[in-house]
Amino acid sequence: MLSLLMCLGLQDQVLANQQPLLMDGKKTLYQRVLTRPGAIVYKKLGDENGVQQAAFTRYYVYQRKQQSDQEWIEVGPDSRGTKVGWISADVTTPWKQQLTLAFSHAAGRERVLFFKDKSDLEEILTAESPAAEIAPIRKKITADSADQRIVSIEPDKPVDINKEFYLLPILQAEEVYTETGERTMLEVASVSQFDKQKNSNNDSPSLLLRRFKAAVVFVIDSTISMGPYIDRTKDAVKRIYTEIDEEGLSDRIKFGLVAYRSNVDAVPGLEYTTKMFVDPVEVKDGKDFLAKVADLKAARVSSSLFNEDSYAGVMDALSNIKWTEFGARYIVLITDAGAIDGDNPLSFTGFGAEQVREEAKFRGVAIYNLHLRTSRGEKNHQQAEAQYKVLSSSPLLEKPLYYPVDMGSVDEFGRIVDDLAESVVNLVNNAYQGKSVAGSAKTADQDFGQSEDKDTSKANTISQDIALMGHAMQLSYLGRESGVKVPPVFNAWISDAVIEDATKKAVEVRVLLTKNQLSDMYQVVKSITDAVLEGMISPDNFFSQLRSAAATLGRDPNQINQSKNAKLSELGLLGEYLEDLPYHSFILGLDQEAWAQLGPHQQDAILKDLNKKLKYYEYSNDDSDRWVSLAEGSDPADYVYPVPIEMLP
After folding, report:
1. Dihedrals φ, ψ of 282, to 5°?
2. Strand 366-373 relative to strand 328-335, pairing
3. 73 — phi, psi (to 5°)?
4. N or C: which end of the chain has fewer CB within 10 A?
């Protein structure tokens, strides 16, 4: 028996050595570090030669040892027992939360300044006029003069985190109280994943923009009432292709078309839910476009609902077109009905407006909506408008790209489509001729799209919006094509909002979740939705269902609070990776009493929101392009995806 116990003890020790060290006070979160410049991994302690590491490689910590007054840590690229050697703790940064930042789009705001000391940033934010305090600093930097308070500055052209993955890990956060309210200061570190590379393209902006291409994809409702609008869209594209050919821009401006209807299982006579008639990557010219859409006609039978599956049509365009071929990327949604929401059994995607908008943002696509407000859909207009304003909302223009067409006027619709297409042609043509080279991000909303006669018609409005959005897309394109990197490695303090204007975001928070963590979160949210459904039937069973789910998912039973008034966040249901995040969740603050006080509509809204997020997790998990390795040789299960904090439960 003694021998058996000794063997079991040795086995436990071996298993412990195969797992990383746990963070203090955590039962499932392992210690992680980010390497700093000069970090070298040695196979064994005492080795003279090692391997230089790329800055900000993420490693798990397996052991810690003190040797000659220096702490050494044994590290590995994943949490599955893969170890690569030993590294000095002095050249690593502990990373307690896998939180990182992405710069918000630079158009229409000042660039982010990185302060060496927190006190200097705090002094400016708490001043009577932060704008007045920061102005001389910006002037100094613009004149290429150094300011000892500033470590670095955001690049003058956007860096696309989806193409050029970079880390701005949050090391700590502090709130300060100012004249205008609470502001957040963040200590961050910075380095590009490709920090050893230099800018890959030294061409001038003028030369780069001569290669700037645009794609406009019409996503059009092709149900029984849409015949006149389908014909008018074809006519608009035919006319604009004539101009494109005359300008010699046929290889720089491409049009595509996706048609959508509704669930064909409910009404087989609809023939399709979505169908791509024209892929802008493959279309040759105007004749080719018109030949491909020759068979596009309105459906001959009615759908089962007034609303159609608009989100399925947009997602078809987002997912199945190679948008990276284009600098300017536009989707124009045309419909006279609302969208089938993700909670409806007839929904093809299971997504709501928020999830589709996030996908468009991920791919750098602007969604414009032409809402045909016909008398037939009068009772539906308000609901549809609310959906499409969320879908088409643009942080760059600080408004939705939503354009109602009163009474569904075919003439007015035609003028808007003509103007939209013409605006895109002008944008690309001017770039090609070197007439409109994108300048500073700050002036993007001042230099472009301003009408001298102040005409406020819908056609003119969309023309201005196309120009403004196009300029922002030019900035992004220049950033991608010129190989712009994030600033070099450093630690610094920044404001999460623009210093001069607290209402504008400077950065967006992302949570780097591993595939395992995303899978775990999916299971948890699924359990919560099941409990919500049960709670709508029998409110007293809501939290008992959640406790049962926590036990089923292997949560520590000692952490499952048995108090009837426990909050959902106290049940130990959600993983530790979400516990300390700096965000507020309405549902995590619910207790049994608060749940019972919610009305049926509020409970139903919670259920719908969670179900749509579940679909988003499924979609993200299946898209291999999203996942990033933070260390060479890491197990794919430890790859991460920067999940927008808005998509958390």
Report:
1. -100, -20
2. parallel
3. -125, 140
4. N
Chain segment 404-445, per-residue pLDDT in tens: 998 889 999 999 999 888 888 888 887 777 665 444 334 344
Under DSSP, the state recorded for 55 is T
| Alpha carbon separation from 545 to 289, 539, 579, 603 (Å, rounded) | 55, 10, 21, 16
Cα(262)–Cα(304) distance, integer angstroms: 8
The token pair at 163 is 């193409």
Q: 493 has which bridge partners?
A: 115, 187
**Distance, CA of 331 to chain centre:** 17
Burial of 489 (0-12, 13-18, 19+ CB in 10 A): middle
d(CA 126, CA 495): 12
Whole-angstrom distance, CA of residue 185 vs CA of residue 499: 11
Mapped onto helix, strand or coil, the DSSP state of residue 506 is coil
Residue 327 has pLDDT above 70, yes or no: yes
Report the alpha-carbon distance of residue 410 to residue 606 in Å, rounded. 39
Cα separations in angstroms, 337 against 357, 383, 406: 18, 9, 13
Cα-Cα end-to-end distance for the chain:
49
| Closest-CA residue to 544 (of 553, 531, 530) | 531
- Helix (H) / strand (E) element for 237: namely helix 227-247
Token code pair at residue 431: 């770039």
Of the candidates 369, 375, 474, 453, the one whose C-alpha atom is nearest the C-alpha of residue 416 is 369
Q: What is the pLDDT of residues 207-237, one digit of tens each?
A: 667 778 889 999 999 999 999 999 999 999 9
Q: Which of 419, 421, 379, 408 is nearest to 229 (CA)?
A: 408
> For residue 92, how far is the Cα from the chain centroid?
28
